[in-house]
Design goal:
Number of domains: 1
CATH topology: Rossmann fold
Shape: globular
Order of helices and strands: EEEHEHEHEHHEEHEHEH
Helix content: 25-40%
Strand order of the largest sheet: 1-2-4-3-5-6-9-10
CATH class: Alpha Beta
Number of helices: 8
Number of strands: 10
CATH superfamily: Alpha/Beta hydrolase fold, catalytic domain
Distance between the termini: 24 Å
Oligomer: single chain
Length: about 250
Amino acid sequence: MKEKQFNINEEGCSVRCKAYLNDPRSAGRVVLFGHGFGGHKDNRAAERFALKYLSKYKDAAVITFDWPCHGEDGRKRLSLEDCDQYIRLLLSYIEKQYAPKKIFGYATSFGGYLFLKYTHEHGLPFARMALRCPAVCMYDALTQGIMTQGDHELLEKGKPVLAGFDRKIRIDGEFLEELHTADITKWDFTDWADDILILHGLKDEVIPIAEVEQFSEDNVIEMIVAEKADHRYSDPQIMDKAIHDIIMFFEG
């Protein structure tokens, strides 16, 4: 498996990307991976998935990227519009670069929220899409789970705050309002249900499983629950089972 770092410099953007490939010249099937809030393209879960996926499919590629304001991205303010633009630029690049037979989507947490939002607004852009621990209530996850009381006090004074995990992300009141308005739990995804798979850990400490179970039930989306999994699926055996389930779903 080879790794390739590259940028997509279009429309005033510089999207920092990473590709895992067997053959850098071609790819018959491509998986676009969206990381979670505060994460980055050098994602261990994505790399682990790529190792197993590329060992099974020699003509495959897995592509990761930094969301706006994440990883090495140069943007200063996070917005849902910019996230949407990045997805569109990645999809266009994949089509032009590889002309694959199929493009699949795999995203976690905040990335799952953004892939679902994009699907609602533009239609499902993937042959199939797998979401692990998707932040279906992203506004609540950020305001009630990630941000501190001190953060809320600063926002009430009109000041931005820094929140997140691997990299602290600048959050302002305008972005929170965008999240509050774009409540995906109020949208209908049943038209794409057969091509979406959700995986979630019973011990998820960031995204309550009850929210995701309700979302899955409302939209008739298949959901696989891992009883001992936390938000990151930190147990390698549990992660490998999830990867197996995702690969099998993509085959279907």
